[in-house]
Design brief:
Blueprint (H helix, E strand, L loop, with lengths): L10 E7 L6 H18 L9 E7 L3 E5 L7 H9 L10 H13 L7 E7 L12 H9 L4 E7 L17 E5 L5 H26 L3
Parallel strand pairs: 1-2, 1-4, 4-5, 5-6
Antiparallel strand pairs: 2-3
Helix pairs in contact: 1-5, 3-4
């Protein structure tokens, strides 16, 4: 897929698995995945009206880049290259709560997306929430959730159990195949973006 030439307006938050089960080489693949999606959608904050946020998560979430940034392509890629590898447990629920807090404060008619990369199920710890319970508040903000389920240690159906709104899930066999997953994801987001804009424009006529 070639980078798009038109100017999209959307808010995209990447939520990236930085747990101990992700090897350093696979973590680098996640970074390249982020770059690929941004390039294919042409949503560099310094060159478009879109905004990009990046969060990494392990035992807890770390917001590396918020939506206030207007980074150029080169500075954004430098930030991505330097994302911290936290190497702890995989608390997806805490990451989703943090994402909800971020997206709840974004008052816009433009589409909002969360792209969650996960190389396994939630770490089962006392007080942890299931994915379906943790994702519901985020869905109520009007955000579309796309999950990249990477590797053999994660069943894609885990991310749709008891989820009436059915988060979009793309199964990727290995981190090496994330680039192909990025292309499919970008296509899915463009389809949702187009549907959102049609609904938004039609609302002006009623």
């Amino acid at each position: 897929m070639r980078p798009y030439e038109f100017n999209l307006t959307m808010f995209v938050l990447f939520v990236i698995d930085s747990s101990a089960e992700v090897t350093p080489s696979n973590f680098r693949q996640e970074k390249e995945f982020i770059k690929s999606v941004i390039s294919q959608l042409n949503i560099y904050p310094g060159d478009s009206s879109s905004r990009v946020g990046i969060m990494v998560y392990s035992d807890g979430p770390t917001m590396v880049l918020d939506f206030k940034n207007e980074e150029s392509k080169s500075s954004l890629e430098t930030i991505i290259d330097n994302l911290p590898h936290l190497r702890g447990a995989r608390r997806i629920d805490r990451a989703l709560k943090a994402a909800t807090d971020v997206l709840r404060d974004i008052d816009t008619d433009h589409p909002k997306f969360v792209i969650l990369v996960a190389a396994g199920r939630q770490t089962d710890e006392p007080g942890s929430q299931t994915f379906s319970a943790a994702v519901k508040p985020l869905q109520r903000t009007g955000t579309k959730i796309h999950v990249m389920a990477v590797g053999d240690n994660v069943d894609p159906s885990y991310f749709q159990e008891d989820d009436k709104n059915k988060s979009s899930v793309i199964s990727v066999p290995s981190f090496l195949e994330l680039p192909q997953g990025a292309e499919r994801l970008s296509t899915d987001i463009l389809v949702e973006y187009g549907m959102n804009m049609v609904l938004l424009r039609s609302s002006f006529f009623f």
